[in-house]
Amino acid sequence: MLSHLLIKNYALIDELELAPDRELNIITGETGAGKSIMLGAIGLLLGNRADTRVLYNPEQKCVIEGTFGVSGYIIERIFDEEELDYSDTCIVRREIGVSGKSRAFVNDTPVNLETLRRVTSQLMDIHSQHDSVLLGSNEYQLEIVDTYAQNDSQLRSYRTDYQTYRTKKAVYDQLQAEASSMRKEFDYNNFLYEELAKAQLQPDEQELLEQELNILENAEEIKERLQLAYEYLDNTEQSVIDFLKGAVSNLSYISKLSDQYEQLQQRAQSSLIELRDLADEISTEQDRVDVDDTRAETIRERLNLIYQLQTKHQVKDIAGLIELRDELGQKVSKVLNLDDELADAKAQTEAARAQLQTSAESLSDSRQAVLRPIEAEIGSLLHDLGMPNASLLIQAETGKPTPTGVDTISFLFSANKGVKPQQLKNVASGGEFSRLMMAIKYILASKRSLPTIIFDEIDTGVSGEIAIKMGNMMHDMAHSHQIIAITHLHQIAGQGTAHYFVYKDHSAAKTVSRIKKLTFDERVNEIAQMIGGKNPSPSALKNAREILKQRTTASVK
Questions:
Q1: Which of 63, 193, 334, 556 could connect to 328 by a Cys-Cys bridge, CB 3.0–4.6 Å?
Q2: Residues 6+ away with beta carbon under 8 Å from 285
Q3: Which residues does UniProt call coiled coil (predicted)?
């Protein structure tokens, strides 16, 4: 339940604190005093959007904080799934900065709005006048049936299977579309692939062939210059090696005379060995160079093929051709294996659809099982609320799978005897909607483990004895739920275990909304004013006192 509410710097509220009673809390006040502002602030805790226009002082941030006692309510799983700390006390805070940036926290852990909504939807439910409009929609009517049926497990299973089916079908549909396109391109892609595959391209092949061809085309000149280089180094008449031999001989002689020349002799000897090695390698390279016109022509043909393929496919090197060949190979292979892949995807889709159908039937059965009990319970409550001839008929039709199942639920209503039930939005008046919503909220309260329920003028359009009965229903609900009811009716106000009064304070330079908890005598005066106007008569005061004493006596019993 909501044990403490703090609202700072929101709309007409400078700072407001509220510690609601565990049972039935009544909130009254003149129109425009700020009751709806309080609900707007609580709506922020439930994840509603906000902007800087909500700031009372535009230079300070807005803070809305609710402290909830959650002991005994089975909501730990949600905290685990959202990786939030769980304790018997849950603190939810929402902050709106001066820049308009919003932040939300659950037990001091930052959360996004989706997580905030998921957590607070298990802590509090607000009935507003907007719900009466929603009641006319098939989607809201389906939610009512699901809440009554308590079919969360079937609904979660269905949604999981629905998502799986959608995913499998999307893969299958995409594969079919790709298959159609790929089959059209298959012949062309296969021709290109076979052409590239037949070429048997190798990495670095082009560079190596170009180097070899360059040597073959200049073989005679290369051979001649290698011969000249060799002769400079080593020939029978006069060469660098012969001169170096002389240098080595002279250095060897003088190194025997003094050790200081030994290093020079060793360097000269090493150079001689290196030059002989170099001469031998030049001779070997000369022997390897052949004038081979046949080989040169073969290489030219091979390079021409590579150049043609590069031009055709607009790539700059052989690596690009190999990459293209592999891509085409994959496309060709995929088309060749399409039948198997399509058959597998189709089988998976059909299996997912069969599982979805099973889940849908289970979910539909859970809904069908509660339609008549809902009609009976609501009919009985409407009779107690002064509508003895009212009838509610719930129709269920099945269709294509949607995220909420295959069922379309329609509430057909008639308030008068002999009148055929029709769609709610077409036949119900404001007071009839209020009584119907009260009946629905009453039967659903026993089906949900929900700490706090807020009613925002659910009594619109009713009065007299009916208002008393609605108040009794709220009081009954308050035994298992914390109820906060905003009302203009004294019959309901007198049922509360705590009564809060919202008013505007004009004492400062800027008007602010405030709230205070009323004492017994203050409650008497407020209820009397609700009965007889601003200056209540002695009879109105007496009536108000009797109403409160009757409720107190009934509560003691």
A1: 193
A2: 226
A3: 165-281
* Nearest residue to 75 via CA among 84, 65, 66, 67: 84
Rg (CA), the chain: 45
d(C-alpha 17, C-alpha 500), whole Å: 12
CB-hemisphere CA count at 13 Å for 113? 11
Three-state secondary structure call for residue 110: strand
Where do the DSSP E strands lie in 200-308?
Answer: none
SS3 14: strand
Strand partners, 96: 62, 102
> For residues 306 and 295, what is the distance between their CA atoms, to the nearest angstrom?
17
Helix (H, G, I), strand (E, B) or coil at 408: strand
Closest alpha carbon to 105 in 45, 180, 41? 45
SS3 406: strand
**Across-strand partners of 376?**
none
Residue with structure tokens 């001779």? 283
Q: What is the pLDDT of residues 378-435, one digit of tens each?
A: 999 999 888 888 889 999 999 999 999 999 999 998 888 888 888 877 766 677 888 8
Residue that the structure tokens 């939807």 belong to: 121
- Give dist(CA 40, CA 48) in Å, integer: 9
DSSP H stretches of helix in 388-510? 424-427, 430-445, 464-477, 490-493
What stretch of H or E contains 284? helix 262-288
